[in-house]
Write a structure and sequence with these properties.
The structure is a homodimer. Chain A has helices at about 15-35, 50, 55-60, 80-85, 85-95, 105-110, 155-175, 185-195, 200-205, 210-225, 230-240, 245-255, 260-280, 340-350, 370-385, 400-410, 420-425, 445-450; strands at about 40, 45, 65, 95-100, 120-130, 140-150, 175-185, 285, 300-305, 315-320, 335-340, 365, 390-395, 415-420, 430-435, 440. With about 450 residues, the first copy, chain A, is of the alpha+beta class. In chain A, the strands form 3 sheets. Chain A has an 8-stranded mixed sheet. In chain A, strands 13-12-14-15-16 form a 5-stranded mixed sheet. A 3-stranded antiparallel sheet of chain A has the order 2-4-3. In chain A, strand 15 and strand 16 (about 440) form a beta hairpin. The longest helix of chain A has 20 residues, at about 15-35. The radius of gyration of chain A is 29 Å and the shape is globular. The model of chain A has no long low-confidence stretch (mean pLDDT about 95). At the A-B interface, helix 1, strand 1, strand 2, strand 3 and helix 4 of A face helix 1, strand 1, strand 2, strand 3 and helix 4 of B.
C-alpha cells in the first residue's frame, strides 16, 4: 500500500513545530491585546459572492471553490454542460469558496454585524487562508495570517499605534526590523505631477518592483505600459531619492507643491513620523517612495516590514483603506490594519535561532512502569503531581527499561521517576535528572518540593 | 445592496464568544498537556482518497469536496459529462475534501510520519471539521473538535488515563458529568450469545438508540433487521440490566460465560473500573451496555459523557480502536482516544452560567482624547502602562466625552483616564473607576501602583 500523502502546498505540523507556531501566535496576540484589540473568527467557507471580484481576476482563479453538496448537476442543463467553459460551469456547481485572506471576510463581518459591534472597532484575527497558488519554497496553499485592524476612525493615531505594535512584536521576537512606510496619496500626487494620473496602478505596480528588478527594468516596464518618456524622466528623482525621512519629505513638498492630494499624503506621513519619533522606538522607520503593495484598496498609509538580518521578503504589511466595507453596502467606514506573516516569521526565528530555549510544553516527569504493583503505587503520586500542575506520565506498559528511557529522551522529558520494590518498601521514589544523570531517593514531600 | 451573509450552518464569532471559546480550548488543552499529550495540526484539505470510504456511504456524501483548480473540465470527455451522475463526475473534477473529523487525518498522519514520531505517541489536536449535514439547532457545518489520542500501546492504563482526563476537564469547568463506559468485545459477546454474531452492527445501532426511542422501538428495529424473536428475547435482560457496575459485571460474567471475546471485554471493563475507583474521581462512572456509538472502528472500550444538570446529548466520546492505521498500510497499531465537543460544552457552560467572571481579555484602561496637546501628554504614559503589561488604549479621535465614555462602557473597560489642561499643569492624571464612578487625581507612580 502506498504511503498516504497530503495535498501539495499543505503541511502537517508536528509537536515541535506546533510549539514554535504557538509561540509566534501567542506573542503576536499578546501584543494585539495589550493595545485593546479583540479577537474574532470567521468561517473557513464564505459565499463566493462575497469573495469573487475582490482580489482581481488572478485572485478569482486562485480561490478554492467548494462543490455544491448533493446532486449538483441537477441544476445544469445538458446544453450548459457541453457549451460552458470550466469557469462558467463553476458558477453553477459551486456557491462557496475558502477564505483567501482575512481582510475581505472582516469587511463582510463588519457590515453584517454592524449593529452588534461598537465603533471604532479594533479586532484581531489569526486564522488560516487558502490560495491555489503554485506551491514553491516558502509559499503554501494553506497558511496563517495574523491581522489587526481598526475600523471606524480616520485618526492618524491609529497608524502610529500600528507602528508601535509592529515595533513591540518584533522586539519581543528579538528580530531587528526596518518598518517601511509610504502613502498612497503621495503616489497619486506623483502620478499627477508627471502627468499620468490615470496610470497610477501601472506606475505603482512597476515601482513596487524596484528592489527586485532594478531601476532599468522598472523604466522598461513603465515604458511598456505607455507611460511617456517625459513622465519617466520626471519620475527618476523620486525613484532615486536618498536621505533622511525628513529630507525626503522636504524634497517631496517641492516636487508635489501643485498636488493637493500629494501634499495631504506628505502631511500624513509627517504627522506619523513625528509621533513615532517621540516614542523613541527601537525599530528603524523609513519613508520608502517605491513601496506600493499591490492592493488597490489602500488609500493612505502603506506599511511593510523587512527583517534586517535575514534575506527574506516582507514579514508584515498593511495600510489604510477608506472604503473596504463599501463593497458590501456600508460606505464611509475608514480602516487601517496590519498583517503578520506567520510562516516567514517562523523561518526568520529559525534562521536566527531566536526561539526561547524552554519552548516545548511537554511532559516534565515520566514514571517508569515496572508492572502492576508498582503502577498502583505510582498512580496516586502522579495524580498529586498533576494536581500541582506538573505534567506527568506513567509509561503505559511494563517495557524494557531501555525503551522507557528512550521514550523520555525522545520526548525531552527532564525527569524520570523510578519506583520499584525497594522504593515502595521505604515509601519513597528515585528521581533521575536526565540532563546530569544524577539520582536521588526522595520522599513524596521532597519530590514535590523539587519539581514545583 | 443586500446585507452580506455567510453559508448556512457556519458562524462568525464575536469577541465575547471568542473569549468563551478560548476559555474552553485553553482549559481542555491545559489538561491534555498535564497528561503529556503534545499538539499537532493537519491541513484543512485532505486528498479525497484519504477520506472516502472511512465514514460510511452517508459520510462520503457529507464530505465537502473542493473543485480542482484551473480548467477542471479538460479531463472530462463530452460523453462522461452527459452520462455521469453527479457522484461519478465528482471523482473527475475533485481530488480534495475538507477534514470531516480529526481521527482519520490523525491515522493518516501517524502512518505518514511514523519515522519522525516515537511510540507510544500521545497527541492532541484542536481544529475545525466540516460536514455537509442539514444545519439545525446546535448542529453546524463547521465545528471544532478537541481530541486526545494515544497510539502504539495496548495497555488499559491508557483508558484509565482518558477517564482521569475527562474527570479533570469537567471538574475544571464545574460541570457535573456521568462517564458512561462499555466495551465492544462485550457487545460482540452478547451478539454471539444470542446467536446473531453476524448482525453485530445492526444490533449495536439499534440498542444505541434505547435512551432516545425506548425499548419497544428498539425491539421493533431489531426485528425489522431480521434478528430472530428468540434472540431479541435473550437480549432483554441485557437491555434492562440494573444495579451497580460490579453487579452488572457479575451478571454479565454468567451471561457471557461461553464467549471468550465477551469475557475479555468484561475483564477489561473490570480492570478500568478498579483503577478508576482507586483514584476516587469526582465524576460518576457507569457501565452502560446500551452504549455503542455508531463508529465501527472501535474494538474495545467505548466512552461517552453526559452532563448531569443539562438536557443535551453526549458532550464527549471516544474509545479503543485496534487497527485504525491499517487502512493506510500500517497494521497493528492500537489506539485509544477521546473527543470533546466544544460547541455543546459552550452551550452547557452558558446554560449553567459557569463561565469565569473575568473572562474577556479586553482593554483595562481607556485614555480620553482631548486633542493634540493632551494626546502628546498621554502617549508616553500609555507606553509605560503597556510596558507593565496593562492593556491600554487612547481613544483615537477628539470626540464628544459621551461618545468616548460610551466606547468604554460597550467594551467593558474598567478604568478611564482623563488628562486635560489641569492635569497636565500638575503633571498628573485623573483616574475614573467605571464601576463606582469614583475619581482620583494621581501622579504617574500612583497610577501605576493602582493599575498593576
Amino acid at each position: 500500500m502506498q504511503k498516504p500523502t497530503i495535498p501539495k502546498g499543505t503541511r502537517d505540523f508536528l509537536p515541535l513545530e506546533m510549539a514554535k507556531r504557538n509561540y509566534i501566535f501567542r506573542t503576536i496576540s499578546d501584543v494585539f491585546k495589550l493595545y485593546g484589540f479583540e479577537q474574532i473568527e470567521t468561517p473557513a467557507m464564505e459565499n463566493l459572492s462575497t469573495l469573487l471580484g475582490k482580489y482581481g481576476e488572478e485572485g478569482d482563479k486562485l480561490l478554492f471553490k467548494i462543490l455544491n453538496s448533493g446532486d449538483f448537476l441537477s441544476k445544469v442543463t445538458r446544453e450548459e454542460l457541453l457549451s460552458d467553459t470550466s469557469i462558467k460551469l463553476t458558477n453553477k456547481i459551486s456557491e462557496k469558496g475558502l477564505r483567501y485572506d482575512l481582510t475581505v471576510p472582516f469587511a463582510r463581518f463588519v457590515v453584517q454585524h454592524r449593529n452588534e459591534i461598537s465603533f471604532p472597532f479594533k479586532r484581531y484575527q489569526i486564522q488560516p487562508v487558502w490560495r491555489a497558488d503554485r506551491p514553491q519554497k516558502g509559499r503554501y496553499r494553506e497558511f496563517f495570517q495574523c491581522d489587526a485592524d481598526m475600523v471606524g476612525s480616520d485618526s492618524l493615531l491609529n497608524e502610529v499605534e500600528l507602528i508601535q505594535i509592529i515595533n513591540e512584536v518584533y522586539s519581543r521576537f528579538g528580530i531587528r526590523v526596518c518598518i517601511k512606510m509610504n502613502n498612497r496619496k503621495i503616489l497619486s500626487g506623483i502620478a499627477e505631477m508627471i502627468g499620468e494620473a490615470g496610470k497610477i496602478t501601472d506606475i505603482t505596480v512597476a515601482i513596487d518592483k524596484l528592489d527586485k528588478i532594478g531601476i532599468e527594468k522598472v523604466n522598461e516596464e513603465l515604458s511598456s505600459k505607455g507611460i511617456s518618456e517625459n513622465a519617466i524622466s520626471l519620475l527618476q528623482p523620486v525613484l532615486q531619492m536618498k536621505g533622511s525621512n525628513f529630507e525626503k519629505i522636504s524634497v517631496l513638498r517641492n516636487l508635489l507643491a501643485d498636488s493637493p492630494t500629494g501634499l495631504k499624503g506628505i502631511e500624513e506621513v509627517e504627522f506619523i513620523l513625528k509621533k513615532a519619533d517621540a516614542l523613541s522606538l527601537c525599530s528603524e522607520l523609513e519613508v520608502d517612495l517605491t513601496l506600493a503593495r499591490g492592493l488597490n484598496y489602500y488609500t493612505g498609509a502603506i506599511f511593510e516590514v523587512k527583517a534586517l538580518d535575514v534575506e527574506i521578503g516582507s514579514i508584515s504589511g498593511g495600510g489604510r483603506y477608506d472604503n473596504l466595507t463599501g463593497i458590501f453596502g456600508l460606505p464611509d467606514i475608514s480602516g487601517v490594519g496590519i498583517s503578520f506573516g506567520a510562516d516567514r516569521i517562523f523561518d526568520v526565528l529559525n534562521q536566527l535561532d531566536l526561539y526561547p530555549k524552554e519552548l516545548t510544553e511537554s511532559t516534565k516527569v515520566l514514571f517508569v512502569n515496572f508492572g502492576e504493583n508498582e503502577t498502583d503505587y505510582c498512580l496516586p503520586i502522579i495524580q498529586q503531581l498533576r494536581k500541582e500542575g506538573i505534567s506527568s506520565e506513567l509509561y503505559p506498559e511494563n517495557a524494557k527499561m531501555k525503551k522507557q528511557m528512550g521514550y523520555a529522551d525522545n520526548k525531552k522529558i527532564p525527569y524520570v521517576i523510578i519506583a520499584g520494590e525497594n522504593e515502595i518498601k521505604e515509601n519513597k521514589v528515585t528521581l533521575k535528572h536526565m540532563g546530569s544523570g544524577k539520582q536521588q531517593l526522595l520522599s513524596r514531600e521532597e519530590l514535590l518540593k523539587i519539581l514545583r
